[in-house]
Amino acid sequence: MESSTFKDLHLSKNIEKAIEELGFEEPTPIQTQAIPYIIEGRDVIGQAQTGTGKTAAFGIPALEMIDVNSKNIQVLVLCPTRELANQVADELGKLAKYTSTKILPVYGGQSIEMQIKALRRGVHIVIGTPGRIMDHLERKTLDISNVGMVVLDEADEMLDMGFREDIETILNRISGERQTILFSATMPAPIMKLTKNYQQNPMLVKTIHKVVTVPNMEQSYFEVKHHMKPDVLCRLIDIYDVQSSLVFCNTKRMVDDLVNTLKTRGYLADGLHGDMKQTQREKVMASFRNGEIETLVATDVAARGIDVENIEVVFNYDMPQDEESYVHRIGRTGRAGRQGIAFTFVTPKEIYKIKSIQKYTKTKILCKKVPSRSDAEDFKATMLAKKVKENIDEGHLGKYMHWVEKMLDEDYTSMDIAAGLLKIMLSENK
Ligand code: AMP
């Protein structure tokens, strides 16, 4: 996989700082390819789906070109839905945290008066649905005459929703030196026509798939809401009695957060990410190798340096950014002749990604039911009962018998004592 760093992109300090804070370790493939061209001022066609990092791919260069001393709208992003407009505005807002760039989403269904007021205060980047943008243009409440960059996000969706005419009207209104960026998951004829009519000599960027072989292993996915991920991870580790697992997160921040959660719950966990010093990383890796750490949480970048055999389970705690990265991740398990297991957590919105991974890898990824809390507890109780029986069979219980006898003398029944112990064990042994 081609890899580069955010440093290679020579971004301004304020944006670098925000990227660092978001915990992005390295640009995604679509960002590596698209950002330099967009910064250069070229028109770009990005063939990329949601989840590939496409928003930052156009958002970072968009923020780089804003002149905050001007009050003009300089970038216009067109999106098919209000949901996407909000998402894009959120992401750009985070990237713009250390700049004074003003960003405003405008979409139908929201009070137009409020939008007009916000527009009057001065905005640099407007993100809107074509219908509502047209509405503002007709009311003359939106001045796009100084827009230098237009982004058509999810262009295929916008055409499917019947926005072609609106898009063309908007583009025709922005004449002069206009940079036009188009992102689309698919490239059907109407999209090609749009790019031919409205882009100049565009560069096409897309993630090119390499041919891969997927090792033979058990691959399953679980549909998990974001906030349930830590619980589900713990249940699976318990139920499958996992002694050695690698858990992939997409950002450094997620790694830190998850390691903290796991440690608080009593798991032998630690994390690896690109910010750690070499000596620190080696220490963590050595502990993982000798079993002091059972759950290693890592980003893709950090995991490249992991050289550990016998990882039982790879968890895709966050969905990988692309199909190839999925294959790289799961390839870390099941070495030394043993079959590995790959578990992927999929939020409801990401189901389509699992489909495209299956298509790409030509393997079946089974949908499994998330084990309930009581499933996990039943399992732990069974395991504990097994251990207790083994210990009884082994004998040497003399001094323990003595303590039990003392409790029996205090009028507790043997049933009380056993149940009390089980309760303590199960709650400690989360
Ligand atoms: P998008 O394709 O724009 O919908 O982005 C999908 C998710 O990936 C968003 O939550 C982004 O914050 C995140 N993301 C974008 N770029 C990176 C990166 N370089 N490293 C890690 N996560 C990223």
**What is the count of distinct domains?**
3
Q: What does the largest sheet look like?
A: 7 strands, parallel
The distinct bound ligands, ions and cofactors come out as: adenosine monophosphate
CATH class of the largest domain: Alpha Beta
**Tally of contiguous helical segments:** 18
Q: Do you know the CATH topology of the largest domain? A: Rossmann fold
CATH architecture of the largest domain: 3-Layer(aba) Sandwich
Compute the average pLDDT: 90
What does this structure look like?
It is a single chain. With 430 residues, the protein is α/β, with parallel strands linked by helices. It folds into three domains: 6-206, Rossmann fold; 217-371, Rossmann fold (3-Layer(aba) Sandwich); 377-428, no CATH class. It contains 18 helices and 14 strands. The chain has helices spanning 13-22, 29-40, 54-65, 82-95, 112-120, 130-139, 155-160, 164-173, 189-198, 229-239, 252-264, 278-289, 300-303, 323-330, 351-361, 373-394, 398-409, 414-428, and strands at residues 44-47, 75-78, 103-106, 125-128, 149-152, 179-184, 203-206, 218-223, 245-248, 269-272, 295-298, 313-316, 341-346, 366-368. The chain has a seven-stranded parallel β-sheet, sandwiched between helices. Strands 10-11-9-12-13-8-14 form a seven-stranded parallel β-sheet, sandwiched between helices. α14 links the parallel β12 (313-316) and β13. The longest helix is centred in the last third of the chain and has 22 residues, at 373-394. It is elongated and about 90 Å long. 36% of the residues are buried. The structure holds adenosine monophosphate. Adenosine monophosphate binds next to α3.
